[in-house]
Structure formats: structure tokens, C-alpha cells
Inverse folding.
């Protein structure tokens, strides 16, 4: 089925998630959609699959304009979407997941019975066509992500999908499963299916797709047919090299933190063998697509996530020569008392308390001691207000002391989060310090962070903005599918190389095991299990 | 802004009117004269000095319980186990009195110790519910409910078993204590002990001071509104949850102690008399506002007392009070819901949220945060 | 104790548990859809009073039961409306309703207190009721008790063997996924809450027109049964047979308490009567022990093999509630 998108626009408030996107996808083809975080890929796919409605523009299927008002509408018209986390029912059996919502088969009227036998027969037939080894009676929560995807594909096929949208499907699946998936997609395309493959993994897209479209900041910035040039794709995705501003090169001081052979388990991620040594005054950027393990690692550095292997040690001796304190397995509050601070990306959900004012936040952060009355029971309101006013002034927060924090803009909320930090701190861990902020706030936030560095604090931050990563970091770690690069010197790192690494290419520079793992798009641990060879 | 406040008032007033309407309908259905019924309620509560005193008697345990509940509500807990905590307060007080009544200690000292024992009992029972929640993940609604029943059974067992009256065990409770161990009442006939009123007033003041004025109170608020952020800001969450359970239990135990020492002077099967649940209703009605709690509790107590003579005067069941109380709380909840639906939850489009919003690699929409009856906002770390 | 008394006792257990079975089946359906009906205690009282009153006035048992069901459905719809349309807490509304309905039942039931009304007749099934032992146990009951047996089976078949039942399970489990598959989540929640309420509303008249015939107001002994129903629903793990087992077990313990009273005077009868609650707490503990943070941290320190084994064991012990229980569904 031919899919045409004409001038699709979708805004969320003042944010233009999709800006007049026009795309023509012929039937029986595999179309890749590339873009970094925030480019607008997810929004576009949600529009196409009926989850949200577009503000303006048209969608045409086989030349006919259609209205897609809901996900059910979409599948009725033949558009099926496979989410990154498949929307299935983990406690149920496969066959029940298959049946739910199908009304006994495409085009049939819903009846009372489950019609399990028929469904099971259809299931087996479809599964064998694609060589999926799925047992209809198995429970879904015992399946791997790859198998859940297979189930969902079969279900969508049974419902008559003629367009299949896959959103970051190769995250967290094993190599054989990926190969099977690709084989399946090619077979489907050959049979007439229109496949839309959304990903940030360059190698996958280059291998699988007939054509590629690149989105950036809500716009369609370019496309290409085979053969693909990686460099061009990267440039389209991330933009060109910007002239670097004058940066003060930090002289790394004493070691503050040592992470050794750390292993972490996430929902879809398994990481092993992470190593990092943080030095006073330096800025380390964690780059990579969201969900590649950076948040997990940052959380582990803060004590919010417990490692399953390895150790975290803080160097507590001021001179740096001496004592190590093993912090592995300790709680976040223990890390806090050792001078480690963590700032979340979801400012209002995880960092601030809606309903409380700025002053009250300062009171919480400072406590009785900070307000000069150690051990006091009652809040010294006057001093609290003075403190709030002075912090508001010094951080230039646009808000009054009694303003409830939810009324502040994003930029001011971030300033508030920074203002709540204590001094001095050893390490500041920030998730997405400037996400959603304007240029002025961004510059200001970084100014404040660099002030901390001058005092000897080390800053580790996550960012999806490559320019930000390259501008402010002294060293960069790239995360891809649970694998981490060794720390790279930021000064000599180019946007192009960083983009490639984020997309999964160029990992052979770090050694054969890493390269093989990265090439397979899997974590090293899984790669070892599967017996991948370099 | 003023518009909004006006609309809020309109909705709330509408709620109250709806409750009155509902109660009137109920009265009509019972073939009872509505105006006469309402008038009798008032007269029954404030008609004579005696009944007015009884309103205060009823007010004391209610406001004590409500004060305690405000602490747990502040931290976001539904302490349904409050009934059991009051009962345990009464049990421990009785135990202490029985233990010390034969000793040569000064009666005032005995009373003080007994009341303290009651408070400890309530706190202990509350901590049990708290521990089940923080360490066992058992939702405090069902844990509290179960413990209520266990407390009731314990109470009955004591009254009909080890502490029974010599001869025949009776529904009227244990052997009454000597008058010297009674909290002194206004007159020998009345059941109103001024000391208990003073204690109740102090309790309200204490809770107000705690929640509004202390660091601890602010931390409780933070945990109640966003436990995750509170944790990140450095508040030890599960410790605060347990502490609030204990505090509420202290108040509940105090209520039970007052019932034993000031009102009944013995342990009876219905020592908590539903004050726990009624306190929950008061707290819900005042939307957890400490200042309003005392007058509303007084109103509810007045309804309870005023309805006592309904059976005699109008041949109506005294549960009319409960009908009015329940209708009020229900109407207020529904009015709040309607208001939020029509006016929006307050605060406009949040620019930060929009910016941080829809992007994320294939984030599946409508991810409901799973809350089962067994969820806890923060567990011990 | 001879066989005759034992069998009669057991038959009595099935009889006295029948209303609870109805209410538990209803609450299971409601909670499977994702809505907790905390007003159960009040609903049973109000529907008992209402059913009795209607039955007394009309002389018809059927109308009495229908009235009870209607009352139950109506109360449940208030909970559903407040939760789904107004997004208020199910716990808050349910709790208020439980007290309100209880007081309503006492107030409106005042006139009919103590009066004797129609009773459900016993309907022995020909042939089968003459069988030794089994006959008295299973086939000498009234209509509603027979229906209670059938109901458990029907609910089980519905939930696990039909398409709408599968859809129901989906809504309570993961409304987002159900929505994607075309389920009208909110509408179905209203439907199943009302249905559950209606079944619970039948339990009330089963008391006032059969098991504890008549309306005796505050001393009717019905206050508290609704809470037990909620406890048994949890203990039953949202599975009909297990829940019914819980109901019968509870009735058995109550009977045991009465029987043992003269035999073991030291053991208080209250102990056995409150047994469902510690059992419920135990079930909840087992459900959640795997989830607690400190357990996770302890697990994280174990070697990989043990961690997987113990984690699996903990997961197996669970009687997991429908994951979306208690939460309103928001499309975006």
C-alpha cells in the first residue's frame, strides 16, 4: 500500500514537533526514518498510527485521503504499529494476546467464544511462514523482547496490516533475533508490505532499507536511496560542525570517583564492564540515543540504581592520594552525604514538589542547619525568605519566593534545581541539563555548572544534543545499545565521528569485542552468549 | 483569579446544598417531616446545657482522631486502621489502670501514666500497619482494615475473657474503675471532663504547629505530594512514613485513653464507637485543612448527639446523623470532581512539560503507572 | 459428632457462604476491570434492607432480589462515575459510600425492623437430594444457594473462556494496550462495575430473605461482612474458584468457632471469626515481598544464578492484582 504524507504538522503548545512533513512511500518497500532524539520521528509515527491527530496536512493511502482517528481506525485501514515496548499483556498467554482485539479474525464479527482453535491454527501458520519459534501456550512475560515483537508482528499481520511501522525495534534484542527480524521484513516487503523502519542505528538502516529519510528538529531535512553514504546521513541527522567557542580547558585534578567493571541491568539493557575515573573539575558528557544506558549509569553513580557487578568507590581524602570509600550498594542518601548530587531530567516529576513554593524547597534542601538554627523544631520563616530571595537573585530565577514551583517555566525550574544544590559538592550528575530551554537559559545553566567546576566539582551530564556534548565536555563517553566507549577526548572529537558512534559505527576502533558487539547492536554480554565473532 | 475563587465557592456551596437536598429526600422517603427533623437535630445538640456538654464529650475523641489523621493524610496515607488504633489506646489505658489501681501511687500520676500507656498502645498498633506497608508493601488500606478487625477481636476477648466481670461477662464492659481514677467531670452526672477538652484543644494546636511550622511537617508535605522528589531532595521517605503512622497512633491512642478515663471509666466493646471512621470523614470534608477541622468536627459531634433523641421524639432512627454526614462528604467530593472537570485542575499549559514532552524513542503512549491495592510510594532503601 | 450433624453443618456452611460468594464474584469482576468498590459493606446492608422492604411490601421475593441488585448497581455506578468521569479517588468515594449506605440502611429500615417477611424456600432436587451424604450436602438448598454454585462456574468460564472475558482482563491489566485493540475502556469499566455491584446487591437480600431472615438494624450482624468480602476477593487472587474457596473457608471457620466454643472455652470465638483478615494480610505480604526495594537490593547482591532462582520463586508466589487496579485511564 502506498503511503503519502502531505504537509503533516503537529504542534504541542509552542513546540513544532512536526513541521510540514511530506513523504511519499511506495508499496512493497522498506523506508527508513532517521533522526536524533527530539527530531519528530515518534510524533510522526504516532500521527500515522492513529495515536494523535495532526493539526494540518493529509494522509493518503493508495492515493485516497483518509482520516485516522484512533489506533483501531489505523489497523482497520491497514496500518499497524510495533512499539518499542510492545503494547501487549505480560501476564497472559501468547494466544490470548494474539486473539485480544481481533474479534476472531480479520473482518469477522465479534462473537462470544474465544475461537482459540482457529486462532491457534492461524497463529501457527503465520509463525511457520516466517520461521518464528513461538509457542501459543507460553506466557508473554517469559518471552524476550525479540519474541514479543514477533508476536506483535504476527498479530498485526493477522489483522490485515499492509503498512508496518517499527519504532526502534532493534533495541534490546539479540543478534539472531535481529537477523530473523530483518529477514522477515524483507520477505514482507517483497510480498507487498510497506515497511517503515524508525531507528537511530545507521548500520541497521543502511543494511535494511531501500530508502532513507532524515528528520531534524521537526523538519524533513533530506533523504537518500541506495547506496547510502554514512557521512551524509550523519551530517543530515546532526548538522554540520559548528565553530567552537573559546573553551577553558580544565586541568583535571585529583580523582574523585572510580567505577570499576560495573554491571547494570535495565529493563531492556544489560551492561557489563563499565569503567570510569572522574577527576576534580572536569566535565564528562554521556552521549547516545536515549535508552542506551546513560541514565542507568548516571543513576548508578548516584546510588539510585544498584549495580549487579563491579564497584563504585569515592576518593574521600582531600589530597587525592589516599582513602577510597567503597560505596557499592549504598543508598542515594549515603552518596548525597558524600557530596554527590543528582538532578533529574523530569524536573517536576522527580526533582521538585508541585504545590510547594520556592521558599519551601529551599527550606527542605537546607534544613534547620542551613537556616542557621541547628536542631530547631520550628521553621525560621524570616530567614527562609531571606535565603530564598538571595538564591532567586543569584540564580536569576523568574519567580517569587512564594511562587509554587509548578508555575515556573522549564528554564526557571532548572535554575531552581541548581539553586537547591549544596556547596561544596564533589560530583554533580545531571540528566539533560538544558532540555527544552532557550539559548539564554542554556548559557546561564552552563555558566553555573562551570563555576562549580572551578571549585573542583566534577560534572557528569547526559545530553542528546551533540553540540552541547562537544562544547562543554572535557571527555565524552558514547553509549550504544548498552555498550560504552572508553572516555574520548572532546577536543579532538568531531560531530561526524560522534554521530557515527551514536549510530553504532566506528566501534571497531575500541577493540574487536566492542566492535562486534556494536555491529550486532547488542550488548557485549549478549554477544558473548551468542558466540559472536569479530 | 477572583473569578476562579468565586467558582470554587459556588461549587462547594452547591455541594453542601446537594447534601441537604439528598438528606431531605431521604427524610421524605422515610415519611418524616424534614424541617422538624433538622430542627430536632439542632435542639437535640444545643437545646440544654446537658446535651451541649455531651456534644463536647463527643467532640474530644473526634477531633483527636482527626488531628492524627491530618498528619497521615499530609504524607499521603489512607490510615483506615485508625479505628483499631483507638481501640488499642483504650486497651492499653485499661491495662495500665488495672495494673496500677492497687498501688499507692497518687491517682493523678496513675491517670497520667495510663493515658501515656494508651498513647503508646495506639502508636504501636499504627506502627504495625506502617511496618506492613513500608517493609511488606501491604497497602495501608487493607492492612489497616485487617488490623481493625484484629483489634476489635482482641478487645472483645479481653472483655469476655481475662478482664471479664466476676460472674457473668457482660456487653457493658469491664469492671468500672474507682472514681478516684476518673478524669474529673464537670458535675457528677455529666460525662464532660474539662481536662479532656483542654487536651483536645492542645492536640489540635500541636498538629497545626507541626504541619505548618516545623521542618518535619514540611518534609511530610513533600513526601505526600511527590515522594520521589522528596527522596531526591534528601528526605528519608520511609522513615517519615513510619513516623507519621506513629504520630497518628499517638493521637488515636489518646482518644481511646480519653474514652476510658473520662467518659466510660472502663473498657467497653465499642470503645472506639466509629470515631475513627468518622474522623476520616471529617478530614476528607475539610480537605485536610487543620484550621477547619475543629469546627467541622464540632458540627459532626453535634449531629451525633442531636440525633440521639430522634427515635423518641420523631420515631426516626438516629443514623440520620450519619446520613447527613455521609451526604456532605460525598457531595463535596463530587463537587470537587465536577469543578476540576469544568475548570481544569488549576495552572495552565505548562511550557516546560510541553518541551520535555512527546519525544522519546518510540515512547508508548498512555503508560499508566500501575497502582495495585498493594502499592507503596517509597520503600526502605 | 455423628455424620448427620457434620453433613448438616457443612451444608449450613455452603448456605451461609452463598451471599458472600455472590458478592465476591461481583467484586472480582469489578476489580478485574480495574475498579475497587470499597462501598461493599454499605452496599450489602442497604441492599439487604431494600430487598427486604420491597419484598415485604409487594409480597414478591423476586422483586426483593431485583431491588437489591438495582441498589447494588446504583451504588457501584456512583463509585465508577466519581472515579472515571470525575477522576476522584476510588478509595475516598468508596469509603464514604460504605458509611453512608450503612446509615441509610439503618435509617430507612427503621420501620420494618423486626418484622417477619418472606423467606426463600428450600428446593430439594428430586432424586439427587435422596443420595446419602451428598444429597443433604448439595441438593437440599434454596434457589440462591444453587445459583451460587453455578455462578462461580459461570464467572470462571466468562473470565477465562470467552472473548469479552479476555477483553475484561485486558482492561484491568493494561488499559493502554486494550485501547489500542479497540476496547472502550471507560464504558466497559462502567459496565463491569455495575454488574459487580448488582451481584453484590443480590447478596444483601440473600441475607434478609434467607440466611438471616428479616431486618434487624444494627444488630443484624451484617455490619462487617462487606469488609470480609473485600478481604476474600484479595485472598482469592481475582480467580473465581480460589475466591469461592475463600468464602467457603471463611464460613467454615465461623462454624468451627461456634462448634468449638463449648468444647474449648479457652479459645475465644472472636479469634476464628477474624481469621480472614490475617490471611488477607499474609496474602498481600506474599504478593509484594518480591517488589520491596530492600528485597531488590538484597537480591542484587546475590550471584546471578541464585538471583534468578529466588526471583522466580517470589514471582510465582504472587497473586498479582490486575496491574491497572485503581487507576483512571487517560488516553494521553
Amino acid at each position: 500500500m502506498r503511503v503519502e504524507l502531505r504537509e503533516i504538522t503537529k504542534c504541542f503548545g509552542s513546540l513544532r514537533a512536526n513541521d510540514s512533513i511530506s513523504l511519499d512511500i511506495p508499496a512493497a518497500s522498506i523506508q527508513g526514518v532517521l533522526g536524533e532524539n527530539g527530531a519528530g520521528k515518534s510524533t510522526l509515527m504516532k500521527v500515522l498510527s492513529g495515536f494523535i491527530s495532526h493539526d494540518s496536512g493529509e494522509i493518503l493511502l493508495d492515493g485516497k485521503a483518509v482520516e485516522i482517528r484512533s489506533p483501531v481506525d489505523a489497523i482497520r485501514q491497514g496500518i499497524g504499529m510495533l512499539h518499542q515496548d510492545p503494547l501487549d499483556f505480560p501476564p497472559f498467554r501468547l494466544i490470548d494476546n494474539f486473539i485480544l482485539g481481533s474479534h476472531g479474525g480479520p473482518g469477522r464479527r465479534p462473537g462470544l467464544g474465544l475461537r482459540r482453535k482457529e486462532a491457534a491454527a492461524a497463529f501457527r501458520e503465520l509463525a511457520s511462514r516466517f520461521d518464528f519459534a513461538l509457542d501459543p501456550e507460553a506466557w508473554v512475560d517469559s518471552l524476550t523482547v525479540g519474541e514479543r515483537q514477533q508476536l506483535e508482528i504476527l498479530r498485526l499481520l493477522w489483522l490485515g496490516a499492509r503498512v508496518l511501522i517499527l519504532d526502534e525495534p532493534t533495541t534490546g534484542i539479540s543478534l539472531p533475533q535481529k537477523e530473523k527480524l530483518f529477514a522477515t521484513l524483507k520477505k514482507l516487503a517483497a510480498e507487498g508490505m510497506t515497511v517503515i523502519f524508525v531507528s537511530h542505528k545507521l548500520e541497521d538502516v543502511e543494511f535494511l532499507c531501500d530508502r532513507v529519510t532524515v528528520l531534524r528538529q521537526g523538519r524533513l531535512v533530506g533523504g537518500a536511496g541506495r547506496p547510502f553514504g554514512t557521512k551524509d546521513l550523519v551530517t543530515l541527522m546532526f548538522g554540520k560542525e559548528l565553530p567552537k567557542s573559546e573553551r577553558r580547558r580544565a586541568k583535571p585534578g585529583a580523582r574523585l570517583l572510580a567505577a570499576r567493571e560495573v554491571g547494570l541491568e535495565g529493563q531492556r539493557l544489560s551492561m557489563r564492564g563499565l569503567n570510569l575515573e572522574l577527576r576534580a573539575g572536569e566535565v564528562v558528557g554521556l552521549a547516545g540515543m536515549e535508552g542506551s544506558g546513560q541514565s542507568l549509569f548516571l543513576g548508578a553513580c548516584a546510588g539510585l540504581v544498584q549495580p549487579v557487578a563491579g564497584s563504585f568507590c569515592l576518593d574521600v581524602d582531600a589530597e587525592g592520594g589516599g582513602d577510597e570509600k567503597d560505596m557499592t550498594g549504598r543508598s542515594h542518601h549515603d552518596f548525597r552525604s558524600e557530596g554527590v548530587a543528582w538532578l533529574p531530567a523530569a524536573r517536576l516529576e522527580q526533582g521538585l514538589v508541585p504545590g510547594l513554593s520556592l521558599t519551601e524547597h529551599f527550606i527542605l534542601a537546607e534544613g534547620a542547619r542551613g537556616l542557621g538554627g541547628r536542631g530547631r523544631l520550628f521553621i525560621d520563616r524570616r530567614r527562609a525568605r531571606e535565603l530564598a530571595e538571595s538564591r532567586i537573585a543569584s540564580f536569576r530565577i523568574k519567580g517569587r519566593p512564594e511562587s509554587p514551583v509548578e508555575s515556573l517555566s522549564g528554564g526557571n525550574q532548572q535554575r531552581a534545581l541548581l539553586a537547591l544544590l549544596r556547596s561544596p559538592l564533589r560530583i554533580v550528575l545531571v540528566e539533560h541539563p538544558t532540555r527544552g530551554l532557550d539559548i539564554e537559559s542554556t548559557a546561564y545553566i552552563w555558566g553555573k555548572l562551570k563555576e562549580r567546576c572551578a571549585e573542583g566539582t566534577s560534572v557528569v551530564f547526559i545530553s542528546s544534543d551533540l553540540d552541547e556534548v562537544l562544547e562543554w565536555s572535557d571527555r565524552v563517553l558514547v553509549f550504544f545499545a548498552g555498550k560504552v566507549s572508553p572516555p574520548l577526548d572532546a577536543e579532538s572529537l568531531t560531530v561526524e565521528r560522534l554521530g557515527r558512534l551514536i549510530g553504532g559505527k566506528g566501534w571497531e576502533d575500541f577493540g574487536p569485542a566492542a566492535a562486534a558487539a556494536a555491529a550486532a547492536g547488542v550488548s557485549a554480554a549478549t554477544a558473548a552468549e551468542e558466540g559472536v565473532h569479530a | 483569579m477572583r473569578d476562579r475563587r468565586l467558582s470554587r465557592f459556588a461549587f462547594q456551596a452547591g455541594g453542601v446544598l446537594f447534601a441537604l437536598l439528598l438528606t431531605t429526600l431521604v427524610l421524605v422517603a422515610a415519611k418524616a417531616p424534614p424541617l422538624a427533623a433538622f430542627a430536632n437535630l439542632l435542639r437535640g445538640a444545643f437545646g440544654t446545657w446537658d446535651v451541649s456538654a455531651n456534644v463536647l464529650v463527643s467532640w474530644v475523641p473526634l477531633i483527636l482522631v482527626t488531628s492524627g489523621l491530618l498528619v497521615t493524610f499530609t504524607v499521603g496515607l489512607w490510615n483506615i486502621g485508625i479505628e483499631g488504633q483507638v481501640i488499642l489506646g483504650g486497651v492499653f489505658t485499661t491495662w495500665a489502670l488495672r495494673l496500677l489501681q492497687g498501688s499507692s501511687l497518687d491517682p493523678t500520676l496513675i491517670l497520667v501514666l495510663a493515658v501515656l500507656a494508651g498513647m503508646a498502645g495506639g502508636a504501636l498498633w499504627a506502627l504495625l500497619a506502617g511496618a506492613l506497608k513500608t517493609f511488606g508493601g501491604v497497602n495501608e488500606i487493607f492492612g489497616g482494615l485487617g488490623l481493625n478487625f484484629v483489634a476489635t477481636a482482641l478487645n472483645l476477648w479481653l472483655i469476655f475473657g481475662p478482664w471479664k466481670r466476676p460472674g457473668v461477662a457482660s456487653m457493658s464492659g469491664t469492671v468500672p474503675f474507682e472514681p478516684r481514677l476518673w478524669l474529673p467531670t464537670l458535675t457528677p452526672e455529666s460525662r464532660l471532663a474539662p481536662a479532656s477538652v483542654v487536651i483536645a484543644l492542645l492536640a489540635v494546636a500541636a498538629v497545626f504547629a507541626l504541619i505548618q511550622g516545623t521542618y518535619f511537617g514540611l518534609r511530610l508535605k513533600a513526601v505526600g505530594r511527590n515522594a520521589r522528589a522528596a527522596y531526591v531532595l534528601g528526605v528519608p521517605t520511609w522513615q517519615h512514613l513510619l513516623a507519621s503512622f506513629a504520630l497518628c497512633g499517638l493521637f488515636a491512642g489518646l482518644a481511646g485513653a480519653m474514652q476510658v478515663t473520662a467518659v466510660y471509666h472502663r473498657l467497653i466493646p465499642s470503645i472506639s464507637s466509629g470515631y475513627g471512621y468518622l474522623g476520616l470523614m471529617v478530614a476528607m470534608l475539610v480537605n485536610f485543612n487543620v484550621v477547619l477541622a475543629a469546627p467541622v468536627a464540632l458540627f459532626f459531634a453535634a449531629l451525633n448527639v442531636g440525633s440521639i433523641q430522634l427515635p423518641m421524639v420523631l420515631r426516626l432512627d438516629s443514623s440520620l446523623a450519619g446520613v447527613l454526614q455521609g451526604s456532605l462528604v460525598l457531595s463535596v467530593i463530587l463537587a470537587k470532581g465536577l469543578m476540576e472537570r469544568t475548570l481544569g485542575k488549576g495552572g495552565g499549559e505548562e511550557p516546560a512539560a510541553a518541551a520535555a514532552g512527546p519525544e522519546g524513542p518510540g515512547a508508548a503512549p498512555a503508560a499508566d503507572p500501575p497502582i495495585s491495592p498493594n502499592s507503596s510510594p517509597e520503600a526502605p532503601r | 459428632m455423628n455424620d448427620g450433624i457434620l453433613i448438616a453443618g457443612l451444608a449450613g456452611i455452603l448456605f451461609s457462604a452463598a451471599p458472600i460468594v455472590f458478592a465476591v464474584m461481583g467484586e472480582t469482576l469489578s476489580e478485574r476491570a480495574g475498579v475497587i468498590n470499597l462501598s461493599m459493606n454499605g452496599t450489602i446492608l442497604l441492599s439487604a434492607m431494600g430487598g427486604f422492604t420491597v419484598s415485604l411490601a409487594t409480597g414478591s421475593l423476586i422483586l426483593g432480589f431485583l431491588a437489591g441488585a438495582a441498589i447494588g448497581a446504583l451504588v457501584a455506578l456512583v463509585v465508577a462515575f466519581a472515579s472515571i468521569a470525575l477522576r476522584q479517588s476510588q478509595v475516598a468515594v468508596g469509603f464514604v459510600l460504605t458509611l453512608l449506605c450503612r446509615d441509610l440502611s439503618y435509617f430507612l429500615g427503621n420501620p420494618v425492623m423486626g418484622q417477619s417477611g418472606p423467606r426463600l424456600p428450600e428446593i430439594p432436587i428430586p432424586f439427587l437430594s435422596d443420595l446419602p451424604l451428598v444429597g443433604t450436602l448439595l441438593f437440599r438448598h434454596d434457589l440462591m444457594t444453587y445459583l451460587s454454585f453455578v455462578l462461580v462456574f459461570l464467572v470462571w468460564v466468562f473470565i477465562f473462556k470467552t472473548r469479552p472475558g479476555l477483553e475484561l482482563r485486558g482492561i484491568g491489566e493494561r488499559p493502554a494496550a486494550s485501547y489500542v485493540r479497540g476496547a472502550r475502556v471507560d464504558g466497559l469499566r462502567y459496565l463491569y462495575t455495575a454488574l459487580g455491584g448488582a451481584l453484590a446487591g443480590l447478596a444483601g437480600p440473600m441475607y434478609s430473605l434467607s440466611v438471616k431472615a428479616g431486618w434487624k438494624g444494627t444488630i443484624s450482624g451484617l455490619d462487617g461482612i462487606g469488609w470480609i468480602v473485600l478481604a476474600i476477593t484479595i485472598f482469592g487472587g481475582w480467580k473465581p474458584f480460589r475466591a469461592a474457596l475463600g468464602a467457603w473457608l471463611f464460613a467454615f471457620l465461623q462454624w468451627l468457632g461456634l462448634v468449638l466454643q463449648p468444647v474449648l472455652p479457652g479459645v475465644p470465638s472472636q479469634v476464628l471469626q477474624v481469621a480472614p483478615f490475617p490471611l488477607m494480610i499474609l496474602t498481600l505480604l506474599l504478593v509484594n515481598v518480591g517488589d520491596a526495594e530492600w528485597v531488590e537490593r538484597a537480591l542484587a547482591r546475590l550471584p546471578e544464578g541464585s538471583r534468578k532462582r529466588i526471583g522466580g520463586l517470589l514471582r510465582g508466589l504472587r497473586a498479582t492484582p490486575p496491574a491497572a487496579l485503581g487507576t483512571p485511564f487517560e488516553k494521553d
In short: Chain A has three domains: 3-238, 242-339+424-534, 352-421. Residues 352-421 of chain A form one domain.
